[in-house]
Structure formats: C-alpha cells, structure tokens
Amino acid sequence: MRWLLLKDLQILRRSPLQAVLLIAWPLLIAVLVGFAISRDPEKPRIAFLNEVPADTRINVGNSGAQLPATGVSDRICARVECVAVEDRAEAVDKVESGDVLAALILPADLVNKINSLSTLTPGVPRVEILVNQEDPVKAQLVDERISSLLAQANLAIARRIASEGGRYLDLLIDGGQFRVAGIAVQILGLRATAQILTALEPALPRGALRNSLREVTDFATQARDNLDVAGPLLSRVAQPIAVKKEVVSGSSPPLEIFAIAVSATLTLAFVTVLLVAGSLALEREENAFSRLTRGLVSPFALLGEKVLLGMSVGFAVTLLMLAGMQLFVPLDWGRFGLWLLAILASSAALAAAGAALGALAREVRAVSLLAFMVTLPIAFLSLIPSGAVGGAVYGVVEVLTAVFPFKPALRAITAALDSAGAGIGGPLLHLAILIAAYGLLARLALRRFATV
Amino acid sequence: MVDAGELVAIIGPNGAGKTTLLSILAGIAAADGGSVELGGGAVGWVPQQAALYRRLTVEENLLLFARLEKHEDPRRSAEEMLELCGLGERRGEIVARLSGGNQQRINIAIGLLSRPAVLLLDEPSVGLDPRQRARLWEFVSGLAGGGTTVIFSTHDIQEAERYGQRLLVLADGEALFDGSAAALREVVRSEAPEAADRDFETAFVAYLQHRGH
C-alpha cells in the first residue's frame, strides 16, 4: 500500500497546478476568513447633510435640560461612513450615481420640532433618507443601520422626556422651585398641601365646611399616592420591554470559531473528495486498475490506500489552514488532540465518500464534476439553520446532509475547536457510520471497474 | 495446448472474442465453460491500452510494479527491464512524453516483471507506426526465443502471418482454426482457390466468408 501511496504523491507532485492549488487554496481561505472575522464590518457610505444650525440645542421640558444637537452628527458618523454634502441636490446626485448608498438629511427645523414635543402643540420631527435600491443586500444594510440609528436617537430623547416628566411629578408631589421665563416659582406640592389641610381641620367647627375640607384633604392624599405609582411607570415608557435571553437548547459557538470550522471543513471536503475520487478514477483511466487487482493489490487495499491518501493530504492542508488562521484569531492549541481526532475522522469519511464517487463515475473529468455537484450544494444545505425554512423542507435538508459527511464533519471540527461547545462523540459516531457505508458502496462500485 | 517459447496469434473479426479469451487466460474474466490449465509459472498480461502511469517516469513505473510484485531487489529488476525494452537512456522521462511504441514497450516490460512463463498481449501493435511495430516484434520475438510463451491478439492479419508461429482463428466466440499460416492458406486453397495465392489478408477474409462470417 505504501508504494501506491508514494506513487500517488509522486503523481500529485508532477502536477504543479494541482500541488500549488492544494497549498494556495487553504492559505487563501485562511487569509480571507481571517481578515473577515478579525476586522469590523465595512461601514456603509452615506451622504450626510445636517441643516440644523450648529448652536441649536434640544430643550427637554421647561426645566432647562438640553441635548446638544451637534453630538447627533458625531454619533451618526461613528456608525456609517459620512460623506458631507452641501445641499439636497448634491445628496441626490451622490445617491443616483452610486457614490453613496444613501443620503441622510437632518432638516433645519428638526430640533424645533423635537422641542415642540414638550409643548401643547407638538410637531412631528422628521429626517429625510434618500436610498439607492439597486443592490438589495446593500439597501437592506443601509435600512438596518439607519433604522437602528433612529431607534437609538428616539430612545435617547424619550428617556430624557420621561426623566423630565418624572421631575414634574416629583415637583407636584413633594413641591419645590420651578422656573418660568427665568422667574423662580415655589410649588407647594401635594404632600405639603395634605399636611397643611390636615393641620387646619381641627381649627374648623364641625359641620359642612369641615367635611368639605376633609374631602379636599383626602383628594390631595389620594392624588399623591397615585402619582407616586405613576412615577416608575413613566420611567418605563421610554423602554417598556426589557429582554431577558436564556439559552434552553443548543450551544452556539462563537462566530469566529464557527467561521473557522466552516472554512476548515469546506477546505477538507473539497480537497479530500476531489483528490480521492480523481485518484481512483485515474487508476481506471490509466488502465492500471485491472493490472493492479490481478494479484498485486486487493480492491480493499486499493480503496484503503486512496482513503489514506485523502486523509494525509486533507489533514496537512487543513492543519496548514488552521495555522494560517492563527495569525488572525488565537486558537486553543491545547485542544490539538481533539482537532486531530476530528480532522482525521472527517477526512476518512470524506475520503470514503470520494472513493464511492470515484468508483461510480470512473472517469477523472466526470468524477471532478460529480464531486463538485455533490459537495457544494451539500455544504450550502448544511449551513441552513433550523427555522430558516419550513419544517418539511428542513426535514429533507436534514436527511440529505446526514447522508453526506460534510455536516457531521463540521460538527466534529466545531466541537474540537470550541471548548465550551457540544461534545464530539455524536459527530464522531456519525462519521464512523458514514465511513463504513461509503466504504461498502465504493467496494461494490469497484466491481464495475473490473469490467473489460 | 501451447508449447513453451511458442508465438500464438489470435485473429478474427470484431466481436470474435479475442480480448475475452485473453482476459480468461489472464484470470481477469471468468469463463462460461471449459477450464484453463497452466503448466507452471506466472502469466504476464499486457492489456491493449498501456496500463501504466503516464505522469511517472519510465523508471518509476517499472520500480513501482517491481515493488508491487515483491521483488527482492526492485531496482535491479527495473534495470533489467530497462535494458530489455531498450529504454535505459530514457529512464528519467515522463511516460506521457514517449511515443506510443515506447509506451507499449514499457507496458510489455511491466507485464514481464512477474517473470511469466506465458505472456498475453492484447493487440500490442495498435496505434504504432511501421517502424515502431518492427521494433516491438523484434522485442517480442526475442522474448519467445528466450523461452517465454507469447499469445497475442491482433487485427493485423499480415502481422499474424509474419510473427505468429501458430494462428488461432475465432469468430463469434467459436474457434474456427488452429494451426500455422501455411496450413490456413492450404484450407483456403481447397475452399476458395481464387484467393489462396493472393495476400494473406485476402485469403483470410475468403476463409471467414466461406464460413458465413
């Protein structure tokens, strides 16, 4: 078997393109994924026109509390790449030309409209967004970013308004000073009112007047008690629903670990399946199969050699990729033993599947096409999360992805990389079953190989 | 019954069963009936299309199969075969870059690595030019001269007449004739005299036609 393995490696070495691809592919994937997961996502490029005068401040109620309008620009431009424009026409031009994805215009009267919210004649503050819907993905990105920005702005203002409302309630209940047009006005407050009225009551003669005074005292007490309850309610108006997240099923690995696992599995799958399938088909294409199996090598030994070839090259390539990833994301090399186990089991199952494909297709070109046609869709299907499609469709997806080694390989490699993740036992057992099943299928398919 | 050192040519029209017979003799295909008995020694098989690795060098191919044959000294065996097929100076060349004739010589050399008492050649000269064919038959005749029994199939009737000491004519899986080229011509003389003195291919076609093939 070792001489056949040596022969296959010699043949591999003789094809410079293939050899370079085997090394370049994992490194390219490592660099791309490494950059993708180690850098912040690109900010959408947005034209920004702020027509609000620079010294304008957002007044919250009559207490004199203010929000600086200029800080809004800074906050927006921290989330998107702002391209300053002089006027609306320039903003429209930039959106139409595709120079920017959208334009955000804060009109001059925006702050006045916000300030009017605390008056008896509140206006409706509006901002203007011009979007280019040419690219639906980018359009969705812009929509999400701007909606998020506006939600944050609305929340900040609502909190301040709720806070000011709370101050008014406190003033009404407990009394204190209140300034109107620069003049301080002393407010008595319901608590003090009730106390004064209660103190006055004995001084009045029994009768209708005293009864009326008691009713007023009771009203002041009830009003104070009820408004005490209203205070906390008002503070919750700005953000009435709080989120408490609790994981009851499954353990999701960190995104960067999952991305590395997907890249590693994809690399392993393509390299192993294509190499083994192609190498086995080559035995027939070179007419060597009949000569080999005429007493020199048993079909099982030949299959074993191909699986070993796939495992060796797949392991080396995947390890190379993970080492490349280390430049971008720190990996837990203390779990190397588990990596080894996961990669070897995965590559063995993928190699067995490759051997079955190679034995079924028999010609190198046909087998390469078949390997791509099987591996690529299965890889995509394996990444569909539950709930993303209907129950029946997901059931079919689960069956399809369970009969090909990609998904269990992904689960095994993810478990090996993620120390807080799920156990590796289940995926390894799944892979072991697939190794046996595909090995048997490949052996049966090899019978066709022998036909002259 | 085939004697040691004998050169037997299997000829017949397409679909006669030439390759099938050789495959049965090689042990690759099972026979529907009858049996094959070997006097001793190995059977070397050389398929019609060169069964070797075109991306390996001449020497790497020979060394690989010598190792798979479990030779005690594979390098020495490879050297012997390089000398035998006359490609010693081209040992380092990738097989794919060699001519069809040279590839066929390596193909036969690999078949000889098992040191066979009987060598089976399935249409060994297909695709070779006349000069390459001449070299090939010189090589094969040398093997037979050394005591190796050679059984080959061919579509080239003149080649069968020239190099086959004995001819086996097959048609539709049936053995029609077993004997020398001269004996076949004598049969034709009695059945189709007008073809008997013409070239051997014409005589052979007349022989088949007389039997409804």
Task: Give a verbal description of the structure.
The complex is a heterodimer of chains A (452) and B (213). Chain A is of the alpha/beta class and 452 residues long. Chain A folds into 3 domains: 2-38 and 255-449, no CATH class; 45-159, abc type-2 transporter like fold (3-Layer(aba) Sandwich), CATH 3.40.1710.10; 188-236. Helices cover 66% and strands 8% of the residues of chain A. Chain A is elongated, with a radius of gyration of 36 Å. With 213 residues, chain B is of the alpha/beta class. Chain B has a single domain, classed as 3-Layer(aba) Sandwich (Rossmann fold), CATH 3.40.50.300. Chain B contains 9 helices and 6 strands. Chain B has a 6-stranded mixed β-sheet, with helices on both faces. Chain B starts with 6 loop residues before the first strand and ends with a helix. Chain A binds chain B through residues 3-4, 6-7, 10-11, 14-15, 286-288, 290-292, 294-297, 450, 452, and chain B through 19-20, 23, 26-29, 45, 47, 49-56, 60, 64-65, 67-69, 94, 110.
Number of strands of chain A: 8
Quickly count the helices of chain A: 16
| Content-based structural category of chain B | alpha/beta
Largest interface: A-B, 20 and 25 residues
Question: What order do the helices and strands of chain A follow?
Answer: HHEEEHEHEHEHEEHHHHHHHHHH
Give the termini separation of chain B.
26 Å
Contiguous low-pLDDT stretches of chain B (5 residues minimum) are none
What is the first-to-last residue Cα distance of chain A?
24 Å
Which regions of chain A are unreliable across 5 or more consecutive residues at pLDDT < 50? none
- What kind of assembly state do the chains in view correspond to? heterodimer
Individual helix count of chain B: 9
